[in-house]
């Protein structure tokens, strides 16, 4: 029996003092296999954080499923009201490869890239 | 046969030993639940009995064990069914755990004299082993069944998708070559192409998030909108806005569609391309220079509403130019070392000197040679830009004589006036096309009519009302600036109108169609008729080739075109010469 190798990716999150900002760090390949961990990192937080920071410094690759997860986080943060100001999701420290993927999809137009 | 009992087949010729064994096993039943025992004299009768009794466990008694052969054991295991059946030998304490019994291939031994507690423990362990195997097999069977159902469903779905693809004009022109290679049965990449009225070719290559069924399903709304809007003459941007809004409504929040859509106008020899989230398309000029047409927009379906106009890239069509489109499956094809094929290798393959007509195979071969395993759906499209021959030409080449088929033409007229509200964002051409499509004989020269209406309407809007300068369009950058000005001018429009009047007169089956387009602007500047500001080169040449008469007067904002309603075949031949 062949069991597919588990990707070495991990998701860790840290809430700032006061719970205003949530930082989620994704290590390794940010792909479909992470979707449960990634969602768990930001769901069921009360009170909901005002700002979300996704730290991509340890992210090697990011696929379209990961882009989809970022969109879900954006929806979560907008709470269904698209016009309600600027979405407070920041994507931080992406390496060149990951940044290029984000730019090809023009995700810089709906997220803040730093 | 007791249901759910633990079934033990005992093989023992010696009666006393058989009775002792049966008593021993029955004694264990108190500890482990119902046991059903069947005693047979030898391997031969055991083999016959196996398929009916379906033992969970086989025990060779002390007299039978020395006579068992490896072949007997193998046959027993085969006959007993798919679940593994443990086989035990009874051996006396005095006998060494000899190689003889191990070589026969038994799984374990029972030691004589029997210790009922130990036997009970062993039976309980074996029973757990059998239960585990049984549930494992049941799960395997369920998974097999599900997998077979899934493949069956996907095969049906694939049939539906391939039937939907028949609407495309991909195989009607030699200008387009394509290769779509799904990773699984279904494809998350989608390619659609159709001719718009006026002979424009519209094409779309899309890549939905993920692959397999969920990704492929997205192709349904995409292609249905594409194939319904393109033939009606909707503009590139209008179709894109519609696709985006529809996909935003139907796709789940984490799904979207990266897409390249292009419009090629072989008459006016320009192309327009929208890229939302796809890898850069590559325009290979006859000279060998490459121009990358990069993504300037979010993928379709991400935002509820979107402005696509500013993301559209304009480029001229020249003989010998090729356009290459691909999905990221090509970039991300990996070799055994895990390296990606990447953009650079791809561009090397595109720019390599090559006999014309061989480059497509060369690129595919380079990717296939590099990639060890396909990780994603993979698509490659090549368009020979100067060879995109409009459909009407192929129609007349096939020998259809449209003027013979026209019956009564009728005498009728349509007047149509558009105010600033309509001109700001409405597109009146599809509406006019749909009205005219109902008129007898109109289908025969829908393309000519579409070109004339399109040219005259755009002239009235862009030059009559908005006073845009066609000279801008001479450079690539100017082209983009022109369309930026058009877009912003249209949005700021607060007054003015455009009037379109169509009148058909039946002259015993060979009628005349008069098209008058007028706008509220100050009219064509004096001394400039036919050149410079109004109709820059191509537009006018095109109109003169199609129309019987064309009246453009300096100082007037009224343009009158007269078309022959019936001499289609000869007209479209002239049109074709012009296009080539």
UniProtKB/TrEMBL annotation, chain A:
Residues 11-114 form the STAS domain. InterPro entries: MlaB-like_STAS, STAS_dom, STAS_dom_sf. CDD domains: STAS_anti-anti-sigma_factors. This is STAS domain-containing protein. It comes from Microbulbifer halophilus.
Automatic annotation (TrEMBL), chain B:
It comes from the Bacteria. InterPro entries: Bact_Sigma-Reg, CheY-like_superfamily, HATPase_C_sf, PPM-type-like_dom_sf, PPM-type_phosphatase-like_dom, Sig_transdc_resp-reg_receiver. The keyword Hydrolase applies. The keyword Hydrolase applies. SUPFAM superfamilies: ATPase domain of HSP90 chaperone/DNA topoisomerase II/histidine kinase, CheY-like, PP2C-like. Keywords: Hydrolase. SMART domains: PP2C_SIG. Residues 7-127 form the Response regulatory domain. This is SpoIIE family protein phosphatase. The lineage of its organism: Bacteria, Pseudomonadati, Pseudomonadota, Gammaproteobacteria, Cellvibrionales.
